[in-house]
Design goal:
The protein is α+β, with helices and mostly antiparallel strands. The protein is built from eight helices and four strands. It has one domain: NADH Oxidase (3-Layer(aba) Sandwich). It binds flavin mononucleotide.
Length: 170
Amino acid sequence: MDTYLAIASKRDWRNFAGRAIPADVERRILEAGRVSSSANNKQHRRFVVVDDPALRERLAQTVYAPANVLGATLVVAVVTPPGEMPAFDSGRAVENMFLAAWNEGVVSVPNGMGDRDATGAVLGLGEDEVVRIVLSFGYPAKPRDPESRSTGEWIAEANREAFDQIVERR
Ligand SMILES: Cc1cc2nc3c(=O)[nH]c(=O)nc-3n(C[C@H](O)[C@H](O)[C@H](O)COP(=O)(O)O)c2cc1C
């Protein structure tokens, strides 16, 4: 898929089909995160894939929308040390994972948490580690085709602030 079309058509999606994600597709998604750039190439991040059903159930209870985790095929917690740059870097890695997934027809949504420490405790993290976000991936319950519209059409229908409100020149 063209990169700009992938970016323009990517939406966060919460309704997943039960179909399994093949191992090679899952690997590409995770590699997209691993290969992402980071400040000074510190790579301060871990991607915790939550496979165990009981653990996933407990994790789901710590995010704002448990159904996003319970219904997902692949669940990944992004873990970093505290601090501003790891937070920024984790955002870069997450979006690369999302776009790599979308390129494979896999949709995704990030999950916020009311209490990061509670999520960290469920995952057995140490005190110097922070769960930045929990990611849900899966094939969409209703097929979605990025090629069905042009990049301009995808952008026009996105629920976003107007270009001139976001982009300034000084
Ligand atoms: C940091 C962050 C946390 C989010 N947390 C949640 C969440 O807990 N549950 C959820 O359903 N969506 C969550 N989202 C998804 C946003 O609601 C979504 O990005 C926004 O509504 C735009 O959606 P769209 O790309 O489909 O237009 C989160 C997004 C971000 C960036």
